[in-house]
Amino acid sequence: MKYARDTASTRPYQETGELLYETLPWVKNLTGKTVVIKYGGAAMVDDLLRDDVMSDVLLLRIIGARVVIVHGGGAEVSGALKRLDLPVAFKDGQRVTTPEVMDVVREVLVGKVNTDLVSALNRHGTVAVGVSGSDAGTLIAQQLDPALGRVGDIVRVNPDYLESLLDNEYIPVVATVAQGEDGGFFNINADVAAGHIAAAIHAHKIIFLTDVDGLYEDFDDKDSLISNLTLEETEGLLADGTAAKGMIPKLRSCVHALRHGVYRSHIINGTTPHALLLELLTDAGIGTVIHATAEAYEFDRHPHPVGALAARLSQDVEEEFGIEGTE
User: Fold this and answer.
1) What is the DSSP string of 172-190?
2) Per residue in 199-216, pLDDT tens?
3) Residue among 183, 130, 188 nearest 157 (CA)
């Protein structure tokens, strides 16, 4: 026998109920939608954070989202190169990838990082499948710059394999190694790969897990964190040099995805426990959202907590606001 006083939650019941109630419209509008998550940074190398992310991904899958994870593994690759006494060199933020380094990249990304992530997800059931970007010609690339060696520029994405996995209710976990048009393999920037994959599979949204809270107008001013902005404003930040250097690949990938049919891009801090759930299933969110359309931007910029909540529970947001893909 157990008494209620011994099993009661430390959170007030009303607060718990309101939190669950708040998630309802977001759950409803994620069900059946495709979400691409670019996974990297501290959230990938810290075991506890990794477990949080994998649990969040599983919950998104349970509520009906079609989830694709795209990952790199720069820290693990650098560690392996140092152990093998091979050079660790970068040029313009890209790893210089000799043929010997490319062999290590494949071994680490496909053979270790990818299998570790798949294993972490599959502890909860048979839900994930590891994919190399070269599998079934999913990512096809050519050399980006001879000075970088085997670093690739994506020329096309063949989405059939990923879509077949999604249709069979699996979570594809994609290592960013591409098949070369020359018959070899190329190392692909994970941000770039995620944007191209999201566009090719017509994802509803793409999410970048980073080590910062989102996009800042001025990174040194922590009050300048941007919660919402339009595609055109993002292109302006890239054009005028306002964007921080480390954010440029992510923003370019956001622009590519949004220009090719993705409705929203999110940049969030993966070191925040359960960041995915906070961003996708609460009214406020925790990061930066970039919107493909002005209508979606206006909807998120002006909260509609009660009226819109009731309306969205009774009908799709697309019907009410005439926009596709509201989160």
Assistant:
1) EEEE-EEEETTSSEEE--H
2) 999 999 999 999 989 998
3) 188
DSSP 36-76: EEEE-THHHHSHHHHHHHHHHHHHHHHTT-EEEEEE--HHH
Element (H, E) at 206: strand 205-210
Residues found in the chain = 327
* Residue range 230-248: mean pLDDT, rounded: 88
Residue given tokens 């359960």 in the structure block? 274
Find, among 275, 310, 290, 292, the residue nearest to 52 by Cα: 275
d(CA 249, CA 191): 6
For residues 266, 272, 274 and 275, what is the CA-based torsion angle, rounded to 10 degrees?
-10
When pLDDT is cut at 50, 70 and 90, the band that residue 153 belongs to is: very high
d(CA 256, CA 79): 31
Q: How many whole angstroms separate alpha carbon 137 and alpha carbon 41?
A: 27
* CA 24/CA 317 separation, integer angstroms: 13
Distance of CA 276 to the CA centre of its chain: 9
Binned at pLDDT 50, 70 and 90, residue 19 comes out as: low
Q: At what angle do helices 13-30 and 307-314 cross, to 10 degrees?
A: 50
Question: What is the Cβ-side half-sphere exposure of residue 151, based on CA atoms within 13 angstroms?
Answer: 18
Structure tokens at 66: 């079609």
SS3 224: helix
251-295 tens-digit pLDDT = 999 999 999 999 999 999 999 989 999 898 887 788 999 999 877
Q: Which letter, b or e, does each residue of 189-219 get, where b requires 16 or more Cβ atoms within 10 Å of its Cβ?
A: bbbbbbbbbbbbbebbbbbbbbebbbbbeee
Q: How far apart are CA 114 and CA 177, in angstroms?
A: 11
How far is the C-alpha of 269 from the C-alpha of 287, rounded, in Å? 7
CA distances from 203 to 90, 96, 200, 248 (A): 31, 31, 8, 21
Q: How far apart are CA 285 and CA 20, in angstroms?
A: 15
